[in-house]
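re: ur msg from earlier - yeah i can do the zinc ion complex, just paste it... oh wait u already did. ok heres what im feeding in:
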Amino acid sequence: MIIDCHGHYTTAPRQHEGWRNEQIEAHKAGKPPPPRPGMTDDEIRKTIVGGQLKVQRERGTDLTIFSPRAAGMGHHLGDATTSEAWASACNELIHRVCALFPKNFIGVGMLPQSAGVSPKNCIPEIDRCVSEYGFVGVNLNPDPSGGHWQDPPLGDRYWYPVYEKMVEYDIPAMIHVSASCNPTHHTTGAHYLNGDTAGFNQLMNSSVFKDFATIKFIIPHGGGAVPYHWGRYRGLAQDAKLGLLSDLMLKNVFFDTCVYHLPGQELLARVVPVDNILFASEMIGAVRGIDPETGHHYDDTKRYIDQLPLSAEEKAKIFEGNARRVYVRLSSVIEK
Ligand SMILES: [Zn+2]
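and the outut:
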């Protein structure tokens, strides 16, 4: 089985994002939001059959761990109330996709975060996502201010209410920022990769893994700059007397393969143990074009894994085994 652990519903029916704009406009005007628009199963089906499902079939992958559009989370917009209503609408829509295509999509939830608001407010949505919707993880935004980094680092006890819930339900979090509202940080070209790198570094300099021995995080986009700079982080950990970086991080932190060229994948697989790499493409996402050097889509990452000098057993871990291990609830949902 080939499990893509990183997909977003980037093709949702137009009225969904349309309502979001109305909601934020209403918030600015101090008015209540309009009622949420209706969406038929057929409208949803159409966006998937011609979108992510089509790409799955073309590329020979089986299952996508699917969450709301990341740049659309917009935690810097509105306030805690608007974030709660928006996260609820987005997660409900993911649940509908997963119910319509249970063999192809399994859900991960976005959280109703807001800059400066304790993430305690995310607990009811986590409960709903896991207990009602059967989701297997969450996306955690380390910077709800959208590029201004106003909240404490991920090692701070500020985040512990979310970590306690993750451990209680045995669900991992993908560390994933949303859109940048800081013009110095392009959303997908800088802010995403900065978020990945900063998130890793914040956790490294914390006691999160001492306090939550079984907690698991996925650092997307190949780990941002981390694998390329593994020597720097090993040295920083050593200088700070944190012990070996591998001992410190690799029981709890995993990297996905959203790296859009072969040399990048080769480096990832050479630096990070195979047990810590999860296949992912983030298809129909940030980079949608065709690479003129290969003639294939940049985000067709399966092609790069296929070319790595690894054994069939090692590739099976990247494509399936590691995802089942990190998303602990995944296998039981698949069997259902
Ligand atoms: Zn993403």
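cool cool. The longest helix spans residues 80-100. ping me if u need the other ligands too
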